[in-house]
Amino acid sequence: MPPKSKRQKQAQAVLLDRYKICKKNQLLSEEDSFDAIIMTMKDDEKCYNSTTSSDDNDASTIDVPDFKSRLDVHSIADIFELCNVECGSRKISTLLYMTLRYLGHKWRNIDLFLRSVGGYTCQVAHGYAEIFLNGDISELESEKRGGKRFDSFYDLFPELEDEAKSFAIESCAKKSADFTTHDLAKYIDTRYYDVTGTTKTNDALIRSSESCRLDLRRWGARFLPNSQRPYFEGHERDDIVKHRSEFVSYFLTRKDRYYTISDDEQPKWNIPKQKPCVLIFHDESTFKSGEVSAKRWVVDGRTPFFSKGSGRSHMISDFLVQHPSGPFFSLSKKEYEEAVKRYPTLLSNSSSFTYDDYSARSGINVGQQGYFDNETILAQFERLFQLLHFKKHFKNHEIEVVVDNARTHSAREYSIIDFGKKIGTRCPVDTIEYIDNKGNNVSISCYFDSGLHKGKSKGLLQLAKELHVHVDPTIKLLELRKILSDHPAFQNVSKLENLGRKYNIKVIFVPKFHCELNPIEGVWCYMKQYVRKMTDQTFPTMMRLIPESQDNFVTKQVHLKLFRRFWQSLDAYQQGKSYGDVLKLFFSGRCNSTIISHRKITNSAIS
């Protein structure tokens, strides 16, 4: 920190000297008017005296400080001024006002107190408190006065602020809602040592969690109760509506190429007239056993309810096929043997999850064997893509796989957020490959092959030049990312889509929050309902009932209704219906008008 000016040193010395000469028992006339504000120790002294009265000798040796007699308005004004030198009266006045209001003191007493110590009036402090609580702290930080301004952390490392802000925005957008200021502090700490090239020698963070909390407020973030989930609010968001429109238009313009279901009372298959295309729908779901102990201690018959989500769980990742050959994908023994000859790795099973015979269906015991992440999903889909070419019913068919738009599915090879601005900064890939506006395949190396910077990453600024995007060399990283994000080089597809291209299979993502556009969601609904009816709340029974529920699903041909509902939903959206309107259609029109999400439906909501 820069040295203090002569005037600052003199003011500080005077204030410190005043504390030294303050008399121990000095009482001021203003004290009585602040009894409701200034903290006293009367109750503590009584408690202390009562506990020490049994031992007079010990009590006589302990000097209980008469804190209240030493506390006066002028002393408080002095410490106020001492803080004012460092941070300004606006912040300290707002802090005192918010603290006293929180402790329940009256407005008039607080106003008198703030005026006496040299702070803002209660009305002004209240205004700045409202500004702070509403998330706009830039006004609170601006003192609008002259004087020397010292460099802050982000003045010295402006790129770190851009990166930290991007990290915070991305983290706040996650469904998990587990982002904390400590996460931001750790991210800044890691990036600081990467940027400076220094080695961390202790456990202290370069920027505290408290400072990061203020950073979030400065960037427009607000810390609010997590009462409303994003799931219930995103259906009519502009980007979601755009994706939904593209999704609907794609399928309806190609409807005569798919196997569809008739609208008769007895559903029948409509065979495509043009080159046929097989639709395969994928999703995962978790079955929870809800197992509890067979016996328990009970007092007076008071037995609490147990959580239906407790107990061991089993997660299934499966595929629903829109084709007359059957709703669930599998090969015959002969077809599978042919596939193994071509791809011997099909015989190897992962230690964390297992595949069903002749199929790509997979299951995993949650908590014991891990969880379905992007790596396991890619492995499962590669197995599916390898098996599909040996299914005789699919010969001379195009194949499209509809996938839920979850992060485990839509993870990309790289993101523009992963790139640094300058030479030698972070870079996630060696090369960038993309298709330009003329349809040509273009490949650009992200590292220097020769010259002074050989072996170093180019950074976004250099990549922008090679991509013929003209930007100011002094541009901030956040603005540079925003400009380059529209370039085809950074509009890369997901790892799953790239894997599909390898096997000539198209992968299509369902719009977020739209389970009615993925028929396999209805499979889980039916199977779980069956399991709940038959279960005895034990894990072995649940594992036995899961395949049994699937067989029952096939026997009753529920999949035909799900496929028909899928196309009905597409038609409804094409006609301009909203999510709420389609939701009523999704549940046979029995839902009342107050429903805003399928997860909000209860018995009382069904008319």
Q: What keyword list fits this structure?
A:
single chain; 607 residues; alpha+beta; Nucleotidyltransferase, domain 5; 4 domains; two-stranded antiparallel ribbon; 10 strands; 43% helix; disordered C terminus
What does this entry look like structurally?
Mean pLDDT is 78; it is low at 19-65, 145-150, 228-232, 589-593 and 595-607. By secondary structure, the chain is of the alpha+beta class. Strand 8 and strand 9 form a beta hairpin. The chain has 24 helices and ten strands. It has a six-stranded mixed sheet. Helix 1 packs antiparallel against helix 5, helix 12 (181-196) crosses helix 13 and helix 14 (238-253) packs across helix 23. The chain has four domains: 6-141, no CATH class; 153-218, no CATH class; 232-294 and 307-410 and 497-576, Nucleotidyltransferase, domain 5 (2-Layer Sandwich); 416-492, no CATH class. It is globular.
CATH topology tier name of the largest domain: Nucleotidyltransferase, domain 5
Q: Which structural class should the secondary elements be placed in?
A: alpha+beta
Q: Can you tell me the overall shape?
A: globular
Largest sheet: 6 strands, mixed
What is the top-level CATH class of the largest domain?
Alpha Beta
First-last Cα distance: 68 Å
Query: Tally the helices: what do you get?
Result: 24
Average residue-wise pLDDT: 78
Low-confidence stretches: 19-65, 145-150, 228-232, 589-593, 595-607
InterPro entries: RNaseH_sf (IPR036397)
GO molecular function: nucleic acid binding
